[in-house]
Design brief:
Number of strands: 10
Low-confidence stretches: 97-102
Structural class: alpha+beta
Distance between the termini: 63 Å
Mean pLDDT: 86
Radius of gyration: 32 Å
Order of helices and strands: HEEEEEHEEEHHHHHHEEHHHHHHHHHHH
Strand content: 5-15%
Shape: flat
Length: about 525
């Protein structure tokens, strides 16, 4: 008994850790299924009610709506158009009369009638009430129905408690058997927690929970769980210091990353989510039916993004290193003042700088065109062509980015021993030779990580593109991150497409980081 209890305790410890992770997955699956079922139920009720209204029948008491007439000009103000709503046998003007006479849903009904183009539609309202609206046509009017607010299904606490208890019993029984039975019990105990997700037909979550059980079994086989527990107890002081940062990283980084990755496999349309597998990725990578030179084609946007990143990094490094070399000269007076002034563009928030440069580039009498007029040159319509709009973006981001490279280069230059330059001068080396054989090799170790980090920042520089050119002309200066934003907020709420494109951005940057680091290391070794 004394040897059995510790074995069961360790097994239940491992099961508890796996169960917490499985419950998080199951809860996310339940929320998704619950919201999807609520949306489907409310949309179906709204569609059936609109069809009943169109046929001249009465609707349920929980459904509000009626027959909406065509738009007619107001007698007093011809530019204002009115619609009338028939509720029962009476007609009234939508949003007409006093505030007390107006109904709360008049605007929703009016907007739905304006949106109706001859084809019936139904969708869930985005006001968080769980209501749905549907519109169906009649020969001379539109039938519109709005459902009453609906609450989602409650969390199935009893089901969760039941499967937790069953899983714990199975895991403990496996521990009593010992050997392979212990690992099989851990796997079966976690797999039991996938039963609710199977009943909810959330196969993605089911596969995740089963994979979690397999991972737990493999960790027990390698004795990782016991070693981890012993390490935490032995170094509990260090673990207590690391725990807040670890929890923060889990909540603020890991969880949003996993959720965003999962959203890429779903499509969001009409306030409902549906699993589409790899469809979003294939649609993006195939260009979505757009020609290769179309600004909406993924490969065109990727080309613009790569060109944007390369041009900016080249200018950042060139200007930053050049200024660092000047600031490191002994004959320069007031180095502290110059450094402070040159760091200011980096210190100012980038969205403020982007708005300032946008104002300077905008209009015939903007600051940039005024300077051109002053020196006898004609003004430029900066956002009228791709080349000028792209140049405006690059100029703005160069202003923002060169101070970082300058600071890194100054720090690296200060570590170079002066004796190397003195010895090279005695040997008759020219300034270019000293730069090539002394300065540049000492700058590379510092500039390598800076270039990698600056590339990631520039690749995802949303503020400059969005606030300076806004993608003009015709979305041709968009980069991948702004295109993902437009999928989410400007193209009908296609959050799944935005998440899929964000996943592709992450994959591209991951490959660049891995291979870029290897290239830098190989050059350092050489």
């Amino acid at each position: 008994m004394t040897t059995t209890l510790p074995v069961v305790g360790r097994q239940l410890r491992d099961f508890a850790v796996g169960a917490v992770c499985a419950l998080v997955i199951a809860t996310c699956a339940f929320v998704g299924v619950r919201n999807r079922e609520l949306a489907a139920r409310q949309i179906d009720l709204a569609q059936r009610s609109a069809a009943e209204l169109a046929a001249g029948h009465e609707t349920l008491p929980t459904v509000h709506g009626g027959i909406v007439s065509g738009a007619t000009a107001s007698p007093q103000h011809p530019y204002i158009r009115h619609r009338r709503l028939r509720e029962g046998r009476t007609w009234r003007v939508l949003a007409g009369g006093t505030a007390a006479q107006r109904q709360a849903d008049d605007k929703l009904i009016y907007d739905a009638a304006n949106r109706f183009t001859g084809r019936p539609f139904a969708e869930l309202l985005d006001d968080g009430t769980g209501r749905a609206i549907a519109a169906t046509g009649r020969p001379d009017a539109v039938a519109i129905a709005i459902t009453s607010p609906a609450a989602p299904a409650p969390y199935p606490w009893l089901v969760i408690i039941g499967v937790l208890g069953l899983g714990a019993v199975i895991a403990a029984a496996g521990a009593l058997v010992g050997g392979r039975g212990q690992r099989a019990g851990a796997l079966a105990g976690i797999a039991v927690l996938a039963v609710p997700t199977m009943l909810w037909q959330s196969w993605f979550a089911t596969a995740f929970i089963v994979a979690l059980g397999v991972a737990l079994e493999a960790a027990q086989a390698a004795n990782l769980t016991d070693r981890l527990a012993v390490g935490l107890v032995r170094h509990r002081a260090a673990a207590s210091f690391l725990a807040p940062a670890g929890v923060s990283m889990l909540v603020l980084v890991a969880a949003p990353f996993v959720i965003g990755l999962a959203l890429g496999f779903y499509d969001h349309h009409g306030h409902t989510w549906s699993f589409v597998g790899l469809h979003n990725f294939t649609e993006i990578l195939s260009g979505g039916g757009h020609q290769l030179d179309d600004p909406l084609n993924f490969w065109f946007i990727l080309g613009v993004t790569v060109l944007w990143t390369g041009a900016n990094i080249a200018l950042h490094v060139t200007i930053g290193v050049g200024l660092a070399l000047v600031l490191s000269r002994k004959w320069l007076r007031g180095k502290g003042v110059w450094r402070m002034l040159l760091i200011l563009p980096w210190a100012i928030p980038n969205y403020i700088t982007a708005l300032m440069w946008h104002g300077m580039f905008t209009g015939e009498h903007g600051a940039i065109n005024s300077i051109l007029h002053a020196v006898g040159l004609s003004g430029v319509s900066w956002f009228g062509s791709w080349a000028t709009a792209f140049s405006a973006n690059v100029i703005t981001n160069t202003w923002l980015g060169f101070p970082f490279m300058m600071v890194v280069a100054i720090g690296a230059l200060e570590t170079i021993p002066r004796e190397l330059y003195e010895a090279a001068s005695v040997d008759g080396a020219s300034a270019w030779q000293r730069f090539r054989h002394i300065t540049l090799p000492h700058l590379r170790p510092a500039l390598g990580p800076a270039v990698a980090l600056g590339s990631i920042w520039t690749f995802n520089m949303f503020n400059v593109i969005f606030l300076v050119s806004g993608g003009k002309p015709g979305d041709s200066t968009n980069i991948l991150v702004t295109d993902a934003y437009r999928w989410a907020f400007e193209r009908g709420g296609r959050y799944g497409m935005a998440a899929a494109e964000a996943t592709l951005i992450f994959a591209i940057l991951l490959l660049w980081t891995v291979f870029g680091t290897r290239i830098v290391r190989s050059k350092e070794d050489a």
